[in-house]
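Reviewers of the previous submission asked for a worked example of the structure-prediction workflow described in the proposal, so we include one complete record here. The input consisted solely of the amino acid sequence. No template or homolog information was supplied to the procedure at any stage.
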Amino acid sequence: MAEMDTEAGMLTAITHAHVFDGERVIDDQIVVIDGAHIHAVGGVVPAGATVIDARGATLMPGLIDAHVHTDMDGLHDALLFGVTTELEMMGYWTDQERKEVAERDDIADVRSPGMGITPPGGHPTEYMPDSNDERMRDYAFPFVSTPDEAARRIAALVAEGADYIKIFMEDGTALGIPGLPVLSNETLLAAVREAHRYGKMAIAHTTTAAATQQVITAGVDGLAHVFIDPPRTPELVAAIAASGVFVTPCLTLNSSVMGNNGSALAADQRVRSRLSKKWLDSLCCSMNTYPQGSLGDVFATVVALHEAGVDILAGTDVSEPLPNLGGLAHGASLHHELQLLVAAGLTPIEALRAATATPARRFGLTDRGRIAPGARADLLLIDGDPMTNITDSLSICGIWRRGVRLTTC
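From that input alone, the workflow returned the following structure tokens.
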């Protein structure tokens, strides 16, 4: 378990920092923490405050990974890299586990839809343990085949505490297993309608242009992936922009499915010092299920969407340290995602927004993603300037989760 600062709750003033507030660099160089929240930005250092001189460093909001599949260990590793919130896109959490996450400050926070909406045999059940394996009870899929079943399933998910609804429309093309069952359009429409009836966002998993057009027409609120098959057409980009959805491209995942591994990331001492061997080994693998894909084409799609006004969110789709899910690791891969967003054509500040203020806004997390009075003191201090050199984001010298400083940094 990571060590935490025992002086949580006292006034702390971080001074002389370059401050990225989640949207822009601001002139104020003093941020005061009082307990779990930011007390002030700018002004003077309060009497009696503990002062941290951050001269030459950059202070920014804690990072948000907008696409993960996680557990307590994943939340622990995420926080080690300044990822203070993970937005899960399918998983299983008991009420007691959710309560534990909310009360601990040595792991990242989490939001989750519970299990996803998928038909019998649909994605992602090809990754699940054999049905005779007792672990399968944690991945129980009440499959959905009809609009009525979708309505009942979503009612159950909402009752179980789902923060949003995840809908799978994956035919397996990008996974190297084409022909997977997919929901009928009528069932898709019912799922979106029911999610909205309960006031929940409907977030769709799609990896093809055709499925993307289908879910956009159905009225989803967000895309958990960007399509990776050609062609990208101006009409599809315009339709996505007009719909108002956000897109989480998961470029680190796309790179892995196209045969690229994360060995360079694993070799970085800033990563090696924070990850276990099993995760470092997994980082050095790749999925390689769509080697015919072009990462350059995906980059161009992301830039076209961004230029059309689509909100881009930083997410990784990291899950478990397995060779067939390789190239990814909790926390570390979000920094890789930032690098890939910049490689695609976003500026460093635009990439940082995609991991702070933008996902907070799109997921209704009004208490985080920004440095402002009253916001949660989820903060990341960087030795360097990631607004100029995005790779500096890994040079972490301070992490706070609800005002409690992680002392292993």
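Residues 131-138 have pLDDT under 50 and may be disordered. We consider this example representative of the routine output the project will generate in years two and three.
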